[in-house]
Amino acid sequence: MSNQAVDAKALDRYECGACGYVYEPAKGDNKHDIAAGTPFEELPPTWRCPVCGARAKVFQNIGPVGSASGFKANFGYGLGVNTLTPTQKNLLIFGGLGLGFLFFISLYGLQ
Ligand SMILES: [Zn+2]
């Protein structure tokens, strides 16, 4: 039982906070002679990101392969917000112009 738990945790991938490189325990790190199957926690203290050289402490646990559905859902939510934002901006801009135009017309009509 405990071995299964350790194995599950050993599959956790870690993403470099500096460059986005993802350390996958299943693949290891050829550049630093890290054998496939080495958990991130068992990397040597001197291990650095093979892409940008960042220290291991800037890496974030992003979970094992196949558990990214939550992250993907958040990503989709972010895209949804982003696609709505231009519309909201247009509404604000044209709404503002419309109000300004009405204000201008009302002033003009008073004179
Ligand atoms: Zn990096």
Automatic annotation (TrEMBL):
CDD domains referenced in this protein's UniProt entry, alphabetically: rubredoxin
Q: Transmembrane helix: present as a keyword of the record?
A: yes
The record's annotation in PANTHER family points to:
RUBREDOXIN, RUBREDOXIN-1-RELATED
Instruction: Give the matching InterPro entries.
Output: Rubredoxin-like_dom, Rubredoxin_dom, Rubredoxin_ET, Rubredoxin_Fe_BS
Name by which UniProt lists this protein: Rubredoxin
Please give the Gene Ontology molecular function terms for this protein. electron transfer activity; iron ion binding
A GO BP annotation: alkane catabolic process
Q: Which organism is it from?
A: Microseira wollei NIES-4236
**Which family does the entry's similarity section mention?**
Belongs to the rubredoxin family.
User: Which segments constitute the Rubredoxin-like domain?
Assistant: 11-62
Essential cofactor(s): Fe(3+)
TM annotation in the entry? 91-110
